[in-house]
Design a protein that fits this description.
Elements (H helix, E strand, L loop, with lengths): L1 E5 L4 H9 L6 E3 L11 H11 L3 E4 L13 H21 L3 E7 L22 H16 L3 E6 L2 E2 L6 H11 L2 E5 L3 E2 L2 E2 H13 L4 E4 L6 E2 H11 L5 E5 L19 H7 L6 H19 L1
Parallel strand pairs: 1-2, 1-3, 3-4, 4-5, 5-10, 6-9, 7-12
Antiparallel strand pairs: 8-11
Helix pairs in contact: 1-6, 2-3, 3-4, 7-9
Bound molecules: NADP nicotinamide-adenine-dinucleotide phosphate (NAP).
The site of NADP nicotinamide-adenine-dinucleotide phosphate has 28 residues, from α1, α3 and β4.
Amino acid sequence: LKVLVAGAGGQLGREFVVRLADGEHVVTAPHEKDFNIGDKDSVRRQVDAAGPDVLINCAAYNLVDAAEKEFETARFVNALGVRNLASEAKRVNIAFVHYGTDYVFDGKKGAPYVEDDKPAPINNYGKSKLEGEILLCKETDNYLILRLSWVFGMGKQNFLYKLRTWAEKNDALKIVSDEISVPTYTETVVDCTMEALQKGMRGLYHLTAGGYCSRFELAKHFLSAMKIKVDVQPIGMDNFEFQARRPGFSAMSNAKFAECIGHPLPHWSEEISRFAARCSEREAIIS
Ligand SMILES: NC(=O)c1ccc[n+]([C@@H]2O[C@H](COP(=O)([O-])OP(=O)(O)OC[C@H]3O[C@@H](n4cnc5c(N)ncnc54)[C@H](OP(=O)(O)O)[C@@H]3O)[C@@H](O)[C@H]2O)c1
């Protein structure tokens, strides 16, 4: 496949570049200065130059708290940028892959969300991402929207990286235990996306690891897998003054995706252990 990736500098975009460098695919992955998805001309130039079979959007405005004050900036990328990409994909008649978020839900269901559940975002980031999905569907029906949650991989813009930096500077950490979702590994997202494309899947799916956990459980598991010794205590979300409200329970079920792809997805705890091993291996090479 000839693949054009938008947002190639982010954690998921970088993983696409790494994993698709296998000779089987031709990947074009311009950086944001040459491929600003909010700029229609920039999008058209890149699509015409690459002549892709599929357009994959990893670009997003992901600053959940900052989006409360910068709603229009978030919309520019997460809604209008997505519309630009979808419209170009339609023009050249190719599939468009886009990533959504569990933050389109309000967290009140109390059980894992399925694709038919009605979104009701409670913060501006979630609203901008939902608007992106809606605009996308108006432009093209040749799409794959994969909603993700708690994405982690190599890079600094994720909870696990922050956790390690906090653990280096403190003997004890307090981590929220009433925010629950599913940690999802970039490697798995890339592999599952390519499998879904090969199978010709189209439409909206929830793509997460198996099970779910609180941030507290995630922190304990990851730090123990990394053999980092630090005392971790649970704490409630209301002890922090976040600018954006967050859904309490936003775990999504991957049952529809797993059924269509033909195999179950690994449990989040296995994914965290696999990621910890990758980090340790990499650090051993560097040192
Ligand atoms: N991270 C999570 O926990 C999470 C959870 C649920 C869903 N998702 C979704 O998963 C997808 C991938 O997220 P990620 O974690 O890889 O995000 P990320 O690391 O923040 O990467 C997003 C990339 O998009 C770039 N970008 C921002 N505005 C752009 C523009 N106008 N044109 C082109 N590129 C632009 C960013 O560049 P700058 O850094 O220079 O701004 C960044 O490199 C996104 O759709 C995200 O909403 C993520």
